[in-house]
Design brief:
The complex is a heterodimer of chains A (134) and B (516). Chain A has 5 helices and 4 strands; from the N terminus they run αααβαβββα. Chain A is of the alpha+beta class and 134 residues long. Chain B contains 16 helices and 16 strands. Chain B is 39% helix and 19% strand. The chains are: A alpha+beta (134), B alpha/beta (516).
Chain lengths: 134, 516
Amino acid sequence: MKVPRHILAQTIAERTLHISDSALLAREIAAYLLTERRTAELESILRDVMQYRASQGILEAELVSAYDVDQHVIEEVRQLLRRAYPKAKTVHISPRTDASVIGGLRVDMANEQLDMTLAAKLSTLKRLTAIDKE
Amino acid sequence: MKDISIQELSEDIRAAITELKKRPEIEEVGVVTRVGDGVAWIYGLTQCGYSEMIQITATDGTSVTAFAFNLGEDEIGAVVLGDDTLIKAGASAKLTGKVLEVPVGPELVGRVVDPMGRPLDGKGPIKASRTSRIEQNAPGVLSRKSVHEPMMTGLTAIDAMVPIGRGQRELIIGDRQTGKTAIAVDTMINQYRQNTGVINIYVAIGQKLSKVARMIERLKREGVMEQTIVVATSAADPASLQYLAPYAATAMGEYFRDNKQHALIIYDDLTKHAAAYRQMSLLLRRPPGREAYPGDVFYLHSRLLERSAKLSDDLGAGSLTALPIIETQAGDISAYIPTNVISITDGQIFMETNLFYQGIRPAISVGLSVSRVGSSAQTKAVKSVAKSLRIELAQFRELAAFSQFSTDLDTETRHRIERGQRLTELLKQPQYSPYSVWQMYATLLAATNGCFDAVPLDKVKSSEANLLRDLKHDHGTEMEHINTGAEPDEKVQKMIVDIANKIAVSYKPEEAKVEK
């Protein structure tokens, strides 16, 4: 019988809290997914893992910006996340650059997002001022 | 290109500035894990409600709207309302906090729109002041009143024998090309010609666009388009839009119902609607039932049709009358979807192919058609002459097989056959020519009093035309009084019969006149 995805994710998340060799864990997970033909669910499983770890106080976020950000900005975002999630004991931030955001920052977590990018504002402006084309 | 109004642009910009000034907040976001065939499967969005609208970021940066249809433990199945080829796996999806809504109000009258209320007629944007949810609860028992006002179709066969009332649901069912849509169009035209004030709403579900365009052109020519809303989806539109079309149109009709007005809604046709829903359900991996339809296909139509009602006086006495259309295969009214809808509606008008090809148009099968509301929804005038019509036609049908032996039959039988043939001939009506109440009354009064019994069968329609012409020309005032629905007094009845008899004499065969 197929193991429900949230059970699988919880198991993996608990392993990540106690294991030190991530490469070994990765091979085990890959082998399981291949055997069970569930490789298509990898993205969803990893998000579930992030969500479970967040509930255990380990918050992971991806910081997306158009240009490289300095440590000062990363610290400010970390403080912002600590305020938003008081129960988080650890906050991991992974910076990434993406020119399509044009400017500003976006913080992506497992199920949530804080979007302060220029691209989002322009998209909102476009949506709000749309005029029907004939 | 339409000129931009600076006033409108200024208002839009101010609204945009207000929106943009809001401080960004952490919001829930989902990820599209896979997409195809108009369905996007989304991870996350645990707070999503059923039928909630979701905005998915497309590859070109625009937003594509979808609505949540499957709320699973692991993922959400969202039906895409736009082009699903613009979405790829990994796209982000956000909740809007709103369920599907459509603009409603008098601003839509005279327009052709899609199920989301977007104009299709090139007449510019629709500035509706209100929106309404596409899915609404039907009025409760205490909110309703019994159907008692007539909804005249202008077709004698229907108004006399299968009368429809305001707030009723009367199904039009038959094979393809039997005149189902023609009945609906004639009903709409009659609302305009009789100045009833009823707003028409025509919902084209998966129809050929050429057919919809022809119908709109005809409505414009007849002047009916000014009081009609057309909600159009073609066969090329996604199944999601075809599924939403009748609900969106009903929401538009409910605006008039709830504001003390009367509306007529025509669903053309619910067979295609059921097929679109089946397609969506199968793609969402819902278990198929009979004929591969999902298990809730009855509820699909019952919750739609229950919204058509006559409201109580306390709520304004408005009404929404529904004429759903169902297409059968080989006349099989015992198939799954037809039997479902027959059990929901307050009667049906059954169109027969062989009647159509015999030249009897509208091809209504009197034996199989019924109105469960009955004479409560009939004008007094038509009611008084229609009483014997059904019985005489039923007797004629029983004896029709013997009509070839006319010289060997007794007088009574021969008389019944000849009367039935003339009644059948009189019930034929050309398309786009609905009759007013006085025309129906005069025709049926003359026929049931035997005025046309001696007129040759091929001259019956022309003698009817002469009768109506003379009555209009010489007794216009009395005819206008009959048009209000009131039954005329005996003097007027005698006058009509006398005129009919005089006209009939001129059509008698020469040998009959010589013998006399």
